[in-house]
Structures are given as C-alpha cells and as structure tokens.
Amino acid sequence: MVDGGRPSNARDDGIQVLRRAAAALDEIATAPGRLRLVDLHSRLGLAKSTTRRLLVGLVEVGFAAVDDDGRIVLGERLLGLANADAAHITSAFRSTLERVAEATGETVDLSVYRGGQMLFIDQIESPHRLRAVSAIGGRFTLPDTANGKAALALFDDADVDQVLAALDAAEAERVRAEIRMVRTDRVAFDRDEHTDGISAAGIAGRAAGGNIVAISVPAPTERFNAHRDRIVAALHDALASPVWTSRSQI
Question: Where is the HTH iclR-type domain (predicted)?
Fold first, then answer.
C-alpha cells in the first residue's frame, strides 16, 4: 500500500522511531542525570547500537544532553517546550485552583503527567500553620498518590497493568480496585500512603494539548478526615470547569 508515494512500511518505521524516542525521553525524565547509555539500553530493551543512534539523534535535536560523566539529562530545547507548556496549563487552571483553595482552606496542587510520574507545576498553600506542601518541580509516583491514581483512571487497563507491574500481586489488585472506583466516583484518595500523616484527594482529566492534568488537595490526615466531604465536593465542582477538554479514558 502506498501513502503519498511512500510505502506504508516506511511510515510504520517512522512511527516506531518516534515511539522509541518517546520511550527514551520517558526513561530520562524519570531518572534525570542518573542514566548512562548502558542503563538506557537496558531499560528500553533495544540493541546497544540502536540505543546509541537514538540517543545521538535526541542530542542532535536538543531533546537530550550528555554530561562529561556520560549521564543523560533532558535537553534545553525540550525543557523550553515543556516549561512553555506547563506555564500555559498553570495559567489556564489557576482560577480553578483558587476556587478549590477557597472552598477547602487547604493546600491545592496542580500536576501534569510526565515521564511515568506526576510533575507538580503549581500550588496554592493552605493558611494553616500545619499544612501539606510539595515543591514545584517535584515528581510523585502514580500508585500511591491521589493525583497519580486519578491519572491512572484515565489509562486503559493494559497501561494500568504495566504501571502496576512493579507492585506485589495483592497491592496491585488493591490499586486496581481503587482505580475502578475512581472511574465511577471521579475522585481518588491517598490515605497516608505516600507520606505518613498526610492524606489527599485528587481528580484528573485531559487539558489542552492532550495533557493529563490533576488537581489534588493534601492535608494532615486528622484534618483531612474531618473535612473529607467538603474537599470531595470542591473537587467535584472543579470537574465542571470548562478548562478540561475531556475526562474520558485514553
């Protein structure tokens, strides 16, 4: 079959290269400055020569960089694009975060799915002296956080299984059961899972550009439990915001 004068297998080869590049960038983003070529080769499961060519290409276009010790980081060109994207998302969601913060009196976090983790890009801090605060630019895992589980609820089952593969069977099944509930109730919970003494609720959906974006409300567990219904109601209200483009599965 021919598409625009090019064989379909050439198009498929191009898609495969893009998928490999995306997978490589995901691995680099997950462990910035900690991977060398041999580590990337192992994680991707590709031939070392293929991984080397892929890395050289990413470096040439500014999507990756390698320091003097051979450690790989994301490139300045890609970081510039990511920062511009994050700034756009932050601006679009700011008023929604403010409404949630006003309704709950708690810290409200905004995060976006990047490289297999949730990247925190904005926050409104609670006025309480005892409050939960996460650093902007911090990355949180998916299976033990409210925003992460809310994001996982947007994945199809095969992708969820891939994320949960590192967990033991009982824990993975517990998280799967939670995700099934999130798909119905729209709100995910972290009950002292990620950080002892801190609980959270979160929602997620699609935003401009197809980004998976989450809003979460963390608080000291005792206060969270006392005001859980108010927090959940505020998050349900946030789901009605026009800033979301879709909240259906990927």
Answer: 15-76
